[in-house]
Amino acid sequence: MTTQQKILHISGTVASFVLLWTLWITDRYIDFLLQKRANERALPRTKRIRFSDELRRRIRRKQNSLCMYCGVTLNRRNMHIDHIYPVEHGGSNNQENLQALCAGCNMRKGVQTDSEFRERYRELLPPVQAGYSPAPPIERIPQSMFFEITSRTRQLESTRARRRAVFKTPRQKINSGSITTGVVVGIVWFFVTAVIFGSGSAAGYISLFGGVIVGLLAAIGIIWRAKYTGRFDEEGE
What we know:
two-stranded antiparallel ribbon; 2 domains
């Protein structure tokens, strides 16, 4: 093996090692982005507030002190104020978006909207007609009847889709994270090269354009690697 061949062999080995090391670091960084931003919301959550006793009394009187879904009698201990359209998905704290439920019905409803909940339990609850305000059932509905329907049905696809939409998808996290990383890398390059090469005009061009190119390459590299490994289009949380 000639000297030139040895040099090419060593250069190829070093380049392969650097490439593998870079890919390993990139994969770990993508994992870090997804883990660190696991609960990052794409939709803002409405801030929950403490409802006044007077508002709670008004809502309870409006429903004749009955749970809107099961009709059980409500008191200070078992009454929960529920958001008809959940705050998790941007529902307001206005009185028009509030109703009184017992603890069991409130936990069962969760992040479902009122219409989604009524659709799933339509065997027990009538749908809300346009122009008519909902009212509690005339006769109390046992929780066991709700549980029976819960055990044999699933939440509506609209509910599950909105659940997924609450948090940013891996695609959104990686895109924004790679752009931020590219900007940081570009700035670091700019200042490091400025210190090394001084403050001349030629050095300034090297620092500026080098920073832009290195930053772009960093961002594109992260996105490309995420696509290649399949994490770019994974199912959202």
